[in-house]
Design brief:
Elements (H helix, E strand, L loop, with lengths): L4 H26 L5 H13 L6 H15 L2 H25 L10 H19 L4 H18 L1
Helix pairs in contact: 1-2, 1-4, 2-6, 3-4, 4-5
Length: 148
Amino acid sequence: NFGSKEELLLALFDDQAARRMAELERLAAACEALAPQERARLLVEALLRVESAESGWILLFLEFRLVAARTEALAEQAAAHDLAVARALADVLERALPELVPPGASAAQAAAVILAAREGLLARTAAGGAAAEELLAATAAVLSGLLG
């Protein structure tokens, strides 16, 4: 049982994040034999990809972020959630995706930036359409070029 609907949402977001981390680890293992630039491109695309079934989650998450920004206690819970997800992603980066950690940065720093950038990208592309597709393609090209 959960003490509030916010706690339930955070638990659901944690579950969603755990599934995404497992997917990234599977993809990293499947792409081991690829050239670094191709591997980076596929991994970046996987990080940025949003399935149509996820659009409801994304909108819910963005709305949750707005409420948390105006509620101190909820903001603290969201920050703790963010830290836990960033730690989990940093572990995945260190173990399976070291090429996504730029020189001079730690896995924790890379994870924090990847997650923040993904959220911003989700906010900018939530409505879908041609402009969203163009932004996703541009982001994938730039990031895979930087990391590949």
